[in-house]
Specification:
Length: 471
Amino acid sequence: MSSYDGSTTGGATTTRSVSADVVVVGAGTSGCYAAATVAQAGYDVVIVERKDEHEAGHIACGDALKGASDFPEAIPKSQLEPAFTNTGVDHGRFEIPQEDTVLEIPVPGELAVIDRWEYGRCLIEGAERAGVEFHYDTVVQNVRQDENGRVTGVTGIRKGDPVTYDAEMVIDAAGALSILQDKTDLEDASFDTNVQYSQFCSAYREIIEVDEPVEWDDALVFKPTERSAGYLWYFPRTDTEINAGLGFQMNEEPMELVDSLKRDLDRREEFDGAKVTDKLGAALPTRRPYDSAVAPGFMAVGDAAGHVNPTTGGGIAGAAYAGTYAAEQAIEAIEDGRTGEEAALWEYNVNVMDHFGSRYAALDVYNIFTTAYDIDDLMALLAAMPGEKLAEALYGGSTSIGLGLKLKMAVNSVGHWGTIYDLYQTKQLADRLLDHYEQYPDDRAGFEQWQRERDAIMDDIYEVTGAEPKY
Ligand SMILES: Cc1cc2nc3c(=O)[nH]c(=O)nc-3n(C[C@H](O)[C@H](O)[C@H](O)COP(=O)(O)OP(=O)(O)OC[C@H]3O[C@@H](n4cnc5c(N)ncnc54)[C@H](O)[C@@H]3O)c2cc1C
């Protein structure tokens, strides 16, 4: 249990003070996995969450879970399974109206569609079972740092009263555009502060109930939005309950998300007479992962560190693993008595890059590519691409296309060869970037040099794609 140090009263307000080994801000996927891992190792950990107990876990999401077979141990899959409402999805269905084409594409690995709120509750229960203490209704407003810049805790407001938390380690799991990073002086740390709104996607979704079962309840349906650098989705929670949503990259002209979704819903017969039961919107990072997500006494995980596949917007798996890796290194740092960024914490960056960060950085190159091209050109290209190669490119960050397939693509896509050539060159650069990320430095000493070399590759990427630099 965390210790309650007492309260000080000044006038009518009372400041409550809490001490724990680790304080985690945010009760989402990354926060619950981080805190459960810390608790299972026998340390005191508190999750501070701004929502109330009922609303916690209710998060804007498409509800699609990629890699549904594979969750870190701290909250095992068996505890989350009650929220898996559709485990029969096995492929992507890409609708390309411009080309009058529908591509049915296998998606590698296990897929599921979930009831996201129920999943959020299962996560919280899993973390509670591991020994995590939850403080709901508590909005973190500031970060405490000592005279050397080490983060020592956070401050916030709980139901109108100020509250102070002291900790050996603070884990920022507060999601996209986390306020903690605005409030922390990170100037002397390796922590990535090169974060702008244009690296995010603005997204919105509705839960829709229909009377008649949809025919595509075994597929994740994707469709281009009216402009490039975005997509519309229809993900079947069941054959009569659909998560429908869309998003766009925020370096583009703002899109009227609610109206665009409505227009598409109105065009589709299967949604005649449909009932909307829930609506939510949020931002998510569609960028490369943070170059470094550590500072003395501080780590960021999940959306707060850009741990999202930037081409699909899938962030649940990255959040679960990032939370776990951060907690493991936080424990090691506390046991070593060295919570600076040089020692145990750096290993967290290495583990993230090693598992998924390098792949996501390479995938971001395709995201950059799409911001620079005309939607019709891209859709024609998509329609010409062999499905399984597309799936590899979407999820793997790289794909190899043999001569026969290249010829088939070329024949199918007459009129778009210029774009194909640019895509080919972009792919070479994405592969170069992936190689570079695979050499992410094992310690802090090689970091600046590694960043300089990476930036040089990015310069080439912007030159080839003609895209507006976003970093
Ligand atoms: C519309 C949309 C659709 C998506 N679809 C999918 C999908 O289909 N599949 C997929 O895998 N991913 C999807 N994602 C991404 C996925 O939802 C996120 O990557 C994932 O939820 C990240 O988890 P997290 O724990 O890092 O952050 P979050 O789940 O956002 O959790 C952050 C928590 O921190 C709390 N918090 C924030 N600020 C404070 C504060 N100051 N004080 C206290 N608490 C605070 C919040 O209330 C929240 O509970 C989607 C995202 C959006 C927006």
